[in-house]
Specification:
Layout (H helix, E strand, L loop, with lengths): L12 H15 L7 H15 L5 H16 L3 E5 L1 H18 L3 E3 L6 H18 L5 E2 L5 E2 L9 E2 L1 H5 L3 E5 L3 H9 L3 E5 L6 H5 L2 E3 L3 H11 L11 H17 L2
Parallel strand pairs: 1-2, 1-6, 2-3, 6-7, 7-8
Antiparallel strand pairs: 4-5
Helix pairs in contact: 1-4, 3-9, 3-10, 4-5, 4-9
This protein binds ligand PTJ.
The site of ligand PTJ has 24 residues, from helix 2 and helix 4.
């Protein structure tokens, strides 16, 4: 981040910072070719949501945290965008939850896997974090998916009961749900297949979600009456209201 020059008082500072992280990650070989497109789509939805955590997203965040804390074998699945945008805070969260992270990417190449694992190991070292990083040596496959994106580990994704998947693709989300897992989705698009398939969907920007989780981690209670459909409907309602109000 050393060459990031924007002033924190700039009204678009946060957005510029995230773009910078992605530019840097692209240079470092962490990202998929379509990573910027995915980010741009996220930015568009974030703009419509007011670039802030709406109350229903916060409710889903607390529900997700409580569910992760209660889980027997929680795991956080990480892709290129997630590591680039929030690698540090995601590893800090994993340590607080005592759960492993697993690199599980859509566009899998040995070079990207090595770059992502290397980045996470460097963060671990810098912050002296105790987190298991899985994914380097896949020994299992997610049933129902074709190609290298199905590769995963038995001790991580396969044996998990609760899995958090930031910026997941719809197919894989569906496959994880079909395996009987509780799937926590983080996606700014409330209309995406992942958002609709997820057990708990947080319609919010990834870096804000992880920061909120780190703040709320000691005070999260699972709400037995939680409804994911209500969370999605509220996000859409929020966007619609933004169009009709000044
Ligand atoms: O690293 P890989 O190979 O696993 O590839 C990662 C990407 C993200 C490129 C891949 O999974 C992909 O193409 O994703 P999609 O299908 O474009 O979906 C990304 C979703 O994440 C979209 O619905 C975006 O709205 C949403 N999104 C993008 N940036 C953020 C986000 N949601 C939350 N926070 C963000 N920062």
């Amino acid at each position: 981040m050393s060459d990031f020059a924007a002033d924190p008082s700039h009204p678009r500072y946060q957005s510029l910072l995230l773009r910078h992280r992605l530019e840097q990650a692209e240079k470092d070989g962490l990202l998929a070719g379509s990573a910027m497109i995915a980010h741009g789509r996220g930015e568009a939805y974030d703009y419509l949501l007011g670039e802030r955590t709406i109350p229903s997203a916060h409710k889903a965040t607390v529900q997700a945290l409580g569910t992760l804390k209660k889980a027997k074998r929680p795991v956080i699945s990480l892709n290129g965008n997630a590591v680039a945008l929030a690698g540090e805070s995601l590893l800090m969260l994993a340590e607080r939850l005592s759960c492993p992270v697993e690199i599980n990417i859509f566009y899998r190449t040995p070079e990207r896997m090595a770059a992502l694992i290397g980045r996470l190991e460097a963060i671990k070292e810098e912050h002296q974090l105790e987190v298991q990083i899985l994914g380097a040596e896949p020994n299992a496959r997610i049933p129902g998916l074709k190609g290298p994106r199905a590769n995963c580990t038995k001790e991580g994704i396969i044996d998990s009961d609760v899995i958090m998947v930031p910026l997941e693709d719809g197919d894989r989300c569906e496959a994880l749900v079909a395996m009987g897992k509780t799937v926590i989705v983080i996606d700014l698009n409330p209309l995406s297949r992942s958002a609709k398939m997820g057990s708990i969907t947080i319609v919010d920007e990834l870096t804000r979600v992880v920061q909120n989780m780190l703040v709320d981690i000691e005070n999260c209670v699972v709400d037995e009456a939680f409804s994911n459909d209500e969370v999605l409907a509220d996000a859409l309602q929020h966007i619609a209201t933004k169009f009709t109000s000044r």
